[in-house]
Amino acid sequence: MCRIICATLAAGLTAFLISPSLAQQAPLKIGVLSDFSSVYSDIGGQGNVEATKMAIEDFGGQMFGKPIDMVSADVLNKPDVASTIARKWWETEGVDMIIDLPTSATALAVMELSKQYEKIMIVTDAASSDITGKSCSPYTAHWTYDTYANAHTVGSAIVKNGGDSWFFLTADYVFGHSVERDTSDVVKAAGGKVLGSVKHPLNTADFSSFLLQAQASKSKIIGLANGGGDTINAIKQAGEFGIVAGGQNLAAIVMFISDVHSLGLKLAQGLIITEAYYWDLNEKTRAFGKRFMERVKRMPTMNQAATYSATLHYLKAVQAAGTKDTKTVMAKMRELPVKDAFTDNGSLREDGRMVHSMYLFQVKKPEESKGPWDYYKLLAEVPADQAFRPLKDGGCPLVK
Q1: Where are the alpha helices (DSSP H) in the chain?
Q2: I need a labelling partner for 44 at 20 to 30 A (CA). Which of 18, 116, 289, 298 fits?
Q3: Is the pTM of this model over 0.85?
């Protein structure tokens, strides 16, 4: 009798002791929430899916002895759609971490769910500096760039070179508002003036009325507080209106190599832009760019390189922590340095901002380019402590 009871007790005790281990042995699952069909699809989209796959492959494809899973979905750039998918993934589909988030509105919406479910999310596409400011979360990391960093690298460089009066074409949602706000602060701090702005809907095809208002302002600089397809359309139509020929200049605050590729060097030449990554910076960036090109048939944007970096860093942190527990993994992500094909000098702060060098580039003239994707001349490397907002100034409640 004792033998039966003791055996039963021993079995129960063994199950109790190993259950935490078994729980952590459940397959690790990453969800990519992206824009696959609209204005930001070239910036992230399928390229972010491939970058995530590359990171998983480079890590070894397994965590705790089981294959790492990945799912993806199109958020249609709608916060309610993003929230519905994220809720389903976290509630019923066992997703451990969500990455990408193509717009600031979708990122901020999913961040609220991330707090509710205490799950990790890493923003590699959305740009609002509010993500690590007043809206910061203990479970969110902001990886690639933000409106503060871009405004301070591009905006300050342009004002120093005489571009001291500005008018903004602003995408009418959180991202565009953040770009205009942060760049306006830089312009005014440098002694410049903001003469006005006009708001346009996301994914605008016809910029004629907005450009006419910008032209009428007689500002030296027309600041494009938008991104992706909106930036491309605005620059193309500004060319048709003869705005640059008439003496005004365009400042693309948030621009990507995919935008330059779509525009062509004839239209994009001379633009001063900032990026966190460029494929032709060094041996590591060139190696990653070549691998990405082989898979996607185009060079990676900074967001796609950052998605690779963030996924790989997350996987390293889970492995080092020995668990998928959110708080433990986030602590390990902050502890480990970020050194990979995206950056050699990254670190994750307590407000969720991953800080690293940013780069100021000028787009080459057609005759200066040696071939496809050879688009940038490096003007300056901006150290992390100069590019990103000081920790104390963001208004993040997590910062003591």
Answers
A1: 2-24, 45-59, 79-92, 104-117, 147-150, 156-160, 174-189, 208-217, 228-240, 257-263, 265-268, 283-296, 302-321, 326-335, 384-387
A2: 116
A3: yes
